[in-house]
């Protein structure tokens, strides 16, 4: 089935039509900048523009950078606070006339990697980590997703961990790759001691530069780099809609 997948991120809102049987995008990826404050009405207007660009009328899957339960946004670490309690699925459906299925962005990326990327066929405990404006996590047990794990927000050295180890933190503090790798290693080490994963999959834009920081890691758990790179969020969102739409 062909489904439009959308990935709402801190800086960009990206979409493409995805063949959910193969995980391939059947159109070019289209990107619009995320409106400055990422307020609900503005984001909905951008989503509407994106759907119109594809002249698309079917079900839409959307990755969203927050806890999402049955379409309702529950947290707002890097988005406007007025999202909390809002039914994002209904908001986008009303704006576009298409049925929307909204899922946490890291969970979407994890679904794509488990089906078509670095996690394909991996049993046991797999943890996908997306590194960007925030740190997103997706936990899989024998291929089944445990949604909304939010392990980017554990406390490390008295701080919300993602404010030290995200890619945004690396850029903001102008950290060297080695200094940042040390912070990320500390975060991952904490997660491996809590969950004993069999595999970490690292995604997000910065995973393209994995050779600059992964060599500094000192972890027990095997680390691999996501294979779908910046397509994972879009592909996974479409896969999510596929499972919900009937
Ligand atoms: C949010 C998560 C999201 C992650 C990556 C975090 O700040 O709390 O829900 O998955 O950023 O966007």
From TrEMBL:
InterPro entries: ATPase_NBD, ROK. NCBIfam families: PolPhglucPhase (NF045942). Belongs to the ROK (NagC/XylR) family. It comes from the Bacteria. It holds the Pfam family ROK. This is ROK family protein.
């Amino acid at each position: 089935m062909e489904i439009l997948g959308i990935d709402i991120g801190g800086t960009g809102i990206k979409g493409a039509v995805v063949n959910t049987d193969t995980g391939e995008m059947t159109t070019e990826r289209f990107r619009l900048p995320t409106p400055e404050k990422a307020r609900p009405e503005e984001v909905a207007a951008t989503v509407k523009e994106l759907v119109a660009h594809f002249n698309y009328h079917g079900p839409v899957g959307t990755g969203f950078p927050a806890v999402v339960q049955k379409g309702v946004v529950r947290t707002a670490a890097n988005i406007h606070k007025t999202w909390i309690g809002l039914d994002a699925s209904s908001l986008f459906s009303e704006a576009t006339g298409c049925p929307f299925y909204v899922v946490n962005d890291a969970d979407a990326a994890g679904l794509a990697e488990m089906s078509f990327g670095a996690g394909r066929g991996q049993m046991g405990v797999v943890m996908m980590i997306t590194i960007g404006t925030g740190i997103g996590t997706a936990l899989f047990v024998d291929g089944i997703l445990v949604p909304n794990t939010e392990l980017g927000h554990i406390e490390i050295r008295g701080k919300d961990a993602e404010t030290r180890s995200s890619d945004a933190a690396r850029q903001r503090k102008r950290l060297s790759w080695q200094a940042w790798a040390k912070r990320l290693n500390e975060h991952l080490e904490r997660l491996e001691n809590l969950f004993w994963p069999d595999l970490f999959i690292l995604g997000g834009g910065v995973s393209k530069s994995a050779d600059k920081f992964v060599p500094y890691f000192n972890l027990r758990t095997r680390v691999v780099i996501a294979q779908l790179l910046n397509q994972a969020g879009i592909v996974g969102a479409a896969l999510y809609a596929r499972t919900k739409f009937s």
